[in-house]
Amino acid sequence: MSLERQVRLKLAGKRNPEQEKEAQEWIETILGQKFPPGETYDEALKDGIILCKLMNKIKPGSVPKINTSGPSFKMMENINVFQKAIKEYGVADLDVFQTVDLWEMKDISQVTMTLFALGRETYRHPEWTGPWLGPRPSEENKRDFDEETLAAGQTIIGLQAGTNKGATQAGSNMGAGRKIILGK
């Protein structure tokens, strides 16, 4: 088996069909249209057209020009423009897939994770009233305690740190007991 085939099989093993289905349904709901018939999830996303349309629905005007035909580099440009738009929308750089992950179908699971990151980011935008994807991101819940409460907290040892009450080795019997032979 060639090394390239081994790598493809390993990356295919990282894919999660349920997440891909969820991401596809989310995109179809927002766009109001199904993926092209006969195309798989990754094939439909490969040229970046659907991704750019998605971003324009989430934030109108964020992708000013979508290339719908032309040479390969024009289609790759769609992917790059989509990536730039989601970063401007607030998706963290580390959550954004690499262009080759999609264009060469090297790591489709990373593309799906990026879509989930975009779905999470929509929670933070009150102007977005459409469907969300993934769990709601946590929000800061800052608390201010008075000095008396802080001092009381210093005297308590939390059980999360563990406890040694009743922890002895008495009665521990692991394996065979020691045999002492006298007279040898």
List the keywords:
184 residues, Actin-binding Protein, T-fimbrin, domain 1, 47% helix, single chain
Characterize the structure shown:
This protein is mainly alpha-helical and 184 residues long. It has a domain of 121 residues: Calponin-like domain (Actin-binding Protein, T-fimbrin, domain 1). It is 47% helix and 0% strand. It has eight helices and no strands. Helix 4 runs parallel beside helix 5. The longest helix has 18 residues. It is flat, with a radius of gyration of 27 Å. The protein starts with a helix and ends in a 30-residue tail after the last helix.
Structure, briefly:
The protein has helices at residues 3-14, 17-31, 41-45, 49-58, 72-89, 99-103, 108-121, 147-154.
Summarize the topology.
Layout: H1 3-14, H2 17-31, H3 41-45, H4 49-58, H5 72-89, H6 99-103, H7 108-121, H8 147-154
Helix pairs in contact: 4-5
Largest sheet: none
In the predicted model, the low-confidence regions spanning at least 5 consecutive residues are none
Estimated radius of gyration: 27 Å
Q: What is the first-to-last residue Cα distance? A: 63 Å
* Fraction of residues in H or I helices: 40-55%
**Per CATH, what is the topology of the domain at 3-123?**
Actin-binding Protein, T-fimbrin, domain 1
How many E strands? 0
Shape: flat
